[in-house]
Amino acid sequence: MEWECKAQFQAGGGDRVGLLALDSGHWGVVWAYAPTQGMQLVSYDPERAQEVFQATRDRYEGREGLSFDSRTAWQGGSV
Fold this sequence. Notes:
The chain is an alpha+beta fold. 30% of the residues lie in helices and 43% in strands. It is built from two helices and five strands; from the N terminus they run ββββαβα. The protein has a five-stranded antiparallel β-sheet with strand order 4-3-2-1-5. A hairpin with a 4-residue loop joins β2 and β3.
């Protein structure tokens, strides 16, 4: 089994968050916290994972801004 990254962002403070999918149908959200780089991965069903990822992105964007967002990079043609 292998995780596929569906979306990711990095907050202005350095935290990174990714939306992942397994080929088994499970999805997950992973948080990597700066500066300690401690990580947390939580498995969800696909809909819930997308909801959690979007809510997390919205919170970070409103609080400290995003220094990288895969939506912008993919739309701009570079990753």
